[in-house]
Write a structure and sequence with these properties.
There is one protein chain. This protein has five domains: 6-159, Beta-Lactamase (2-Layer Sandwich); 171-295 and 307-351, 2-Layer Sandwich (Beta-Lactamase); 353-390; 413-544, no CATH class; 554-663, Elongation Factor Tu (Ef-tu), domain 3 (Beta Barrel), CATH 2.40.30. The protein is built from 16 helices and 24 strands. The chain has helices at 6-21, 27-42, 74-90, 137-159, 171-184, 190-205, 236-248, 266-279, 327-351, 356-368, 372-393, 445-478, 481-513, 530-534, 566-576, 647-663; strands at 46-53, 56-63, 94-96, 111-119, 122-131, 209-216, 219-225, 255-257, 283-291, 310-319, 395-408, 411-415, 420-425, 432-433, 438-443, 516-518, 523-525, 538-539, 544-549, 555-562, 582-587, 590-609, 613-622, 634-646. The chain has a six-stranded antiparallel β-barrel. Helix 1 runs parallel beside helix 4 (137-159).
Length: 665
């Protein structure tokens, strides 16, 4: 079997396994020889055969399994046991690669192909093969089919059915047909019916692969293949089979290939040869699926002719290990093909019903409306209708929500007059202050140095003027006219510089004086922990250092209202011909008490709040005498009355506005 041609190697492997399966040898010996043939045919780096035991699984034979570490590594061994249990429970061949949906079941970083081996329709052993992760998805599917076919031969050997796989006259055959028909006609979904058919027929006929192609107008589509949850119609194998079926089933007669390509039409021969090269099938049978309308002839029109059968598609049956397509298998195939055609036709006709999901939903609803359920449904429907009418016609106050703070109206920000560093803070948060009280002493070493430099230059220039005046007096006494004129010019020039330095000194003195920050009004320091906030901190010109507010004066509410509420506020002001809309509010410090006020002013521009988005500043007048405690900056939640609106809009206005904005309704 050491043949470099993969197709010849696989064919030789299948023949060797078939020959082995016909021999009478103990099960364990058979499985070990079987594994050796499979390993050589598939070129798998490692593999194992397991049998079911009372306490789990028993390793019967293996090759190079140590490299996978599933026997040495406890974690990998547990994963392998879970994988084997999964195969036993599902009774299907699976190939798990790194991209598989069941990749977590892999016991080792390899592609794992696992196939169950049955004895009397019960899983008796498991074939497990390991391949490198680099093999393609198409190769994985081919290996899965290869393992499944050989596992089928092993199943026949263990069940003692290698000689006669199908016995039409046996009781077990007809029992399996009864179960098959129950499963087949149990659904009205085309894909479900086809999948049930191919998997059950494969078991009944004990063949390697069964596929069903459905006719769609002039095209043909493969809808189910045994052992596959989903058909990959783009695969080369499926495309070649599709072309072959489309050519053959038009004759509406069974087509059987048992190893010879003689006496075939040229187009059929070419397409069959292409498919056999890809699939390595040794026997291929294509049976057309025809639906015969079995309506009785009308008594009024006995002359009506029977309608011709409707071509539904075709069923493909394949053997990879033998050319033997005996009469029992042919009879069984013809029997099941009629039932499959009828089931697929019924499912297809059912799916063609217009708005089928809607009719199903309505039907389930009417089925539930029986007896006491009808009364309950009517009561609930009446309540729902009443609620809808109430939402549409009942009027209720619509109030725009706003959040903000309780603040004195008289309040000033204290700014830094220039770039400097905070040297001393003379007040703390909550201290009362008078207008003109010193609040903060700033320092600017550069400014101080500049002042000292200018003062020094001023002293120097002043002394120079005096010296030049003395020289002028001496020159005048000595009659030195030219020197006197020159000195007069120098004195005038120096005096100009002195005057400039005096002005610069005054400016620097003013700037140094402004390093002292004074209270702008009478009130209290409203900034919390001002000393910790400002001490030794550099500040920029125009930066707010603290706030001073007058708590003895009038108070108001500073609120933020979302800009999407402004339309309601403006319409309410227009409707009631007043800007003073009524307001109800509660304080966070006293949420049990509701206070009243009225709208005072609305800002002319929108600002951005990081939490609420676009908001508009709104101010409201209140009677501060109603409040037991006036706390600067106390959190307030207010509701501005915008007049009557429908109850539905009051409750669900945000959702309604969202739909209107998005859909422009």
């Amino acid at each position: 079997m050491n043949n470099p041609n993969p197709n010849e190697r696989i064919s030789a492997c299948v023949q060797a396994v078939e020959k082995l399966a016909r021999q009478s040898i103990p099960p364990d010996d058979f499985l070990r020889h079987f594994l050796a043939f499979v390993m050589e045919g598939s070129q798998a780096p490692a593999g194992a055969i397991w049998t079911l035991a009372e306490n789990g699984f028993r390793l019967v034979g293996e090759q190079n399994i140590a490299g996978t570490e599933i026997l040495q590594n406890q974690e990998r061994g547990q994963k392998n046991s879970k994988l084997l249990v999964e195969v036993v429970n599902n009774s299907q061949t699976i190939a798990i690669g790194p991209a598989s949906s069941k990749a977590e079941l892999r016991p080792a970083p390899l592609v794992v192909v696992v196939s169950p081996i049955f004895k009397e329709k019960k899983c008796a052993a498991i074939l497990q093969l390991f391949f490198p992760e680099t093999i393609s998805d198409e190769a994985q599917k081919g290996l899965m089919q290869f393992a499944e076919h050989l596992a089928g031969l092993a199943s026949l050997h263990l069940s003692g059915k290698m000689a006669s796989p199908v016995a039409v006259n046996s009781k077990s055959f007809w029992e399996s047909i009864d179960r098959f028909l129950l499963d087949l006609h149990n659904g009205l979904d085309t894909n479900q019916v086809a999948t049930t058919a191919v998997n059950d027929v494969r078991q009944i006929l004990t063949v390697d692969r069964v596929a069903i192609a459905m006719k769609w107008g002039r095209k043909t589509k493969m809808i189910a293949v045994s052992g596959q949850d989903k058909v990959n119609r783009n695969a080369n194998l499926m495309q070649k089979l599709n072309r072959l079926v489309r050519t053959v089933y038009q004759s509406r007669k069974p087509f059987i290939y048992n190893g010879q390509l003689k006496d075939l039409a040229p187009q059929v021969e070419k397409q069959l040869a292409d498919y056999l090269e890809e699939s390595n099938a040794r026997m291929l049978a294509i049976y057309p699926l025809e639906y015969q309308d079995r309506e009785h002839k009308s008594e009024d029109k006995p002359q009506d002719k029977a309608k011709p059968p409707i071509l539904i598609g075709a069923m493909v049956v394949e053997l990879l290990t033998s050319h033997n397509w005996d009469t029992d298998r042919q009879a069984a195939t013809e029997l099941v093909s009629d039932h499959i055609a009828t089931a697929i036709h019924n499912a297809d006709e059912h799916e063609k019903i217009f708005l089928l999901p809607l009719w199903r939903f309505i039907g389930r609803g009417f089925r539930a409306l029986r007896g006491k359920t009808l009364v309950k449904t009517l009561v609930v429907s009446g309540l729902i209708l009443a609620a809808i009418l109430a939402l549409m016609f009942v009027q209720y106050d619509y109030r725009a929500n706003g959040e903000g703070r309780l603040m004195p109206i008289v309040q000033r920000d204290v700014f830094a007059s220039q770039d400097a560093e905070v040297e001393t803070v003379f007040v703390t948060g909550g201290d009362p202050v008078k207008s003109g009280d010193l609040l903060i002493q700033l320092k600017n070493p550069e400014l101080q140095a500049e002042f000292l430099r200018v003062q020094g230059e001023l002293s120097e220039k002043t002394f120079l003027v005096r010296a030049q005046q003395s020289e002028l007096e001496l020159a005048s006494r000595a009659g030195q006219v030219e020197d006197a004129i020159r000195l007069q010019g120098r004195i005038a020039e120096t005096e100009i510089e002195v005057n400039s330095l005096k002005k610069e000194t005054d400016i620097l003195k003013d700037r140094i004086d402004k390093l002292k920050v004074y209270a702008p009004i009478d009130g209290v320091v409203a900034t919390f922990q001002v000393e910790q906030l400002l001490r030794n901190r550099p500040v920029r010109r125009g930066e707010v250092l603290m706030e001073v507010m007058d708590p003895k004066g009038t108070w108001h509410l500073e609120l933020e209202v979302k800009d999407k509420r402004m339309g309601h506020l403006l319409r309410a002001q227009t409707k009631f011909e007043t800007t003073a809309l009524p307001i109800e509010y509660v304080l966070a410090t006293d949420p049990e008490t509701t206070y009243t006020g009225h709208l005072e002013k609305i800002s002319s521009r929108t600002s951005i709040n990081q939490e609420s988005g676009n908001v508009i500043q709104v101010y409201a007048d209140i009677d501060e005498r109603e409040l037991a405690e006036l706390r600067i900056g106390a959190e307030v939640i207010a509701k501005i009355n915008c007049g009557k609106m429908t109850l539905g809009y009051v409750l669900f206005g945000d959702a309604i506005d969202f739909v209107r904005i998005r859909l422009w309704l």
